[in-house]
């Protein structure tokens, strides 16, 4: 008991401390709308969705975790982990079957024999245990709202339970549990119920359409109908449309745009996991698989950005134990793309464990960012990596004049910067990144200075030089993944940018460019990301100690000329 109390106090203290730190800014200017490929607030400024999925669509229809922590603690935990939004799932029948929706949380758990969960929710959330299921769902939404967390209501399935398979009767319009009229009724009820609840910023019409009945004509017929119904019941929310084949395929939208009577609210969503490509990542060469999978992604959904639609990766994730090689390799490729395209996203999942999933009580979720007892993060280093993607690199409302590149390494979620004025180069938080420019002559220069990145022979640190016309100052992106940065260090030998064990930037022999499926090139994977974030390299403050001598004005002018 004493231990538990201690941890509770300690945990509350952490929450208190983290509430003092400026993590995510409260989102102002709701509701959201779209401006070409961007999601923007009332002032027209970009709001990047950095969401986490929270499950409430399983048999008990109760948001997971309420048996582990008070709802307000969970909401605050979401904020302290840097997320600004939750994709909260719901089963259609919660909205359409009044005898289900009016069951209390206690009754629902009782009917499934989940007696321990009853006692635990009673202890952690006494104000919720005897609410009806629909009121309990609303209580989770309000708690998120009180903590400035945006919510996307995601109709995940019809019949409550784990999702998804081709033959579960929930896959496509006309399936056993998927009556299109009932679906429109349910969407309308949820849209109406949350009309005026300002933190509910979007509704995902239906998760992962799939199965033998799926076809493009019915997709347009029903998705447009569902979209109109939601919009007329609640014109504030973004209307989010899933693709076919488990939300992997939106290719058909290329030549047949979604046709609805309203504008500025439609967002398309896509899902992308390691297992979306079976075990390709572990059986193949990571460069070749990444190149192939990303090409496929661009032709099935990524093209939408160029067509002016926002694309929300509403599910991605990995086994956070780090033991699944397929997942690990996929994630490095995913993070590169997500940074480069500056996508909106929702991690699968918040859930550390479920009350009941697929017949197992208390099942642990290794894709969950929280651990089994919803107390600590499962993998702090993954969260650190993910934090690189939580704020936008560019978009409306961010400086339009300070366009530069950052050099991002997915493996660490870090960017290349200088520790001191003349190097060495190292990895650090992307918010402190140098501003680089990649010139048509293929040099990587510090913007506004004469310095450029130069290769040395294999094993030596990469460095900054002033003579930028020789071959060792020219960089190409090579291999199928296009993530290896190479340079000709000397006659006939080329090297790749890499890191050593201290995160110092070095050049090394290029690793596993093709064929080999045994080795992992991730330490040599970098992306040049367009950014308009304000950058530190144009501000001398970091180098005050070095510049604090006579003549610093001269030196500074010299360094920042051009
Ligand atoms: C509502 O749910 C209950 C309990 O599962 C079920 O018995 C009933 O048939 C459902 N009602 C409708 C109209 O689907
Ligand atoms: C869009 O829908 C409207 C009304 O439903 C119809 O009149 C119009 O022709 C459609 N436009 C396209 C491009 O299909
Ligand atoms: C956390 O995830 C990373 C991959 O991002 C993995 O390398 C590491 O082993 C994991 N750590 C733990 C403690 O599970
Ligand atoms: C390095 O040398 C090769 C062969 O001469 C050439 O094809 C390549 O473009 C060079 N790379 C750079 C970055 O200049
Ligand atoms: C990393 O840093 C430690 C401590 O400064 C040093 O002893 C070690 O040699 C460095 N490793 C490499 C690969 O440079």
Automatic annotation (TrEMBL):
Q: Does the keyword Hydrolase apply?
A: yes
Tell me the ranges covered by the Glycoside hydrolase family domain, including all copies. 74-350
| One GO MF term | hydrolase activity, hydrolyzing O-glycosyl compounds
Q: Name one GO biological process term.
A: polysaccharide catabolic process
Keyword Signal assigned to the entry: answer is: yes
Give UniProt keywords alphabetically: Glycosidase, Hydrolase, Signal
Q: Which domain of life is it from?
A: Eukaryota
Q: Which residues form the signal peptide?
A: 1-29
Q: Mind telling me which Pfam families this protein's record contains?
A: Cellulase
- Any stretches that span the bilayer, and where are they? none
The UniProt entry's sequence similarity note says:
Belongs to the glycosyl hydrolase 5 (cellulase A) family.
Q: What is this protein called?
A: Cellulase domain-containing protein
Lineage, top ranks: Eukaryota, Viridiplantae, Streptophyta, Embryophyta, Tracheophyta
């Amino acid at each position: 008991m004493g231990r538990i109390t201690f941890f509770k106090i300690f945990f509350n203290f952490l929450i208190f401390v983290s509430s003092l730190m400026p993590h995510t800014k409260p989102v102002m200017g709701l509701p959201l709308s779209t401006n070409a490929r961007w999601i923007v607030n009332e002032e027209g400024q970009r709001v990047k969705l950095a969401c986490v999925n929270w499950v409430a669509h399983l048999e008990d229809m109760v948001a997971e975790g309420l048996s582990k922590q008070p709802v307000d603690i969970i909401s605050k935990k979401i904020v302290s982990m840097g997320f600004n939004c939750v994709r909260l799932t719901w089963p259609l029948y919660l909205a359409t079957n009044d005898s289900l929706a009016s069951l209390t949380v206690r009754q629902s758990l009782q009917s499934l024999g989940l007696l321990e969960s009853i006692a635990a929710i009673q202890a952690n959330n006494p104000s919720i245990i005897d609410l009806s299921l629909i009121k309990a769902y609303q209580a989770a939404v309000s708690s998120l709202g009180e903590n400035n967390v945006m919510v996307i209501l995601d109709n995940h399935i019809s019949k409550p339970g784990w999702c998804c398979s081709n033959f579960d009767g929930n896959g496509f319009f006309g399936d056993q549990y998927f009556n299109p009229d009932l679906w429109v009724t349910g969407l309308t009820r949820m849209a109406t119920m949350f009309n005026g609840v300002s933190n509910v910023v979007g509704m995902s019409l239906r998760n992962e359409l799939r199965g033998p009945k799926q076809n493009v004509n019915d997709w347009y017929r029903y998705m447009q109908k569902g979209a109109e119904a939601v919009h007329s019941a609640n014109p504030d929310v973004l209307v989010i449309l899933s693709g076919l084949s488990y939300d992997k395929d939106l290719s058909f939208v290329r030549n047949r745009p979604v046709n609805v009577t309203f504008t500025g609210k439609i967002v398309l969503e896509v899902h992308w996991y390691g297992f979306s490509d079976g075990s390709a990542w572990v059986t193949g060469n990571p460069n070749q698989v990444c190149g192939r999978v990303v090409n496929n992604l661009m032709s099935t959904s990524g093209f939408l950005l160029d067509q002016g639609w926002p694309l929300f990766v509403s599910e991605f994730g990995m086994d956070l134990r780090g033991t699944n090689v397929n997942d690990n390799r996929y994630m490095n490729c995913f993070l590169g793309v997500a940074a480069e395209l500056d996508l909106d996203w929702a991690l699968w999942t918040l859930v550390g464990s479920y009350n009941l999933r697929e017949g197992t009580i208390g099942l642990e979720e290794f894709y969950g960012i929280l651990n089994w007892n919803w107390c600590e993060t499962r993998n702090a280093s993954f969260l650190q990596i993910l934090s690189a993607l939580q704020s936008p690199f560019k978009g409306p409302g961010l400086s339009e004049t300070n366009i530069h590149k950052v050099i991002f390494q997915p493996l660490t979620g870090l960017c290349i910067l200088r520790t001191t004025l003349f190097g060495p180069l190292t990895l650090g938080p992307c918010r402190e990144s140098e501003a680089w420019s990649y010139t048509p002559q293929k040099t990587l220069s510090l913007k506004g200075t004469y310095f450029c990145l130069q290769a040395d022979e294999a094993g030596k640190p990469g460095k900054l030089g002033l003579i930028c016309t020789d071959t060792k100052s020219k960089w190409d992106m090579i291999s199928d993944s296009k993530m290896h940065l190479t340079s000709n260090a000397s006659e006939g030998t080329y090297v790749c940018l890499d890191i050593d064990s201290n995160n110092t930037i070095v050049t090394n022999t290029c690793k596993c460019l093709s064929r080999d499926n045994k080795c992992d090139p991730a330490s040599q994977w970098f992306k040049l990301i367009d950014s308009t974030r304000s950058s530190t390299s144009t501000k001398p403050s970091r180098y005050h100690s070095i510049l604090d001598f006579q003549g610093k004005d001269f030196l500074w002018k010299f360094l920042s000329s051009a």
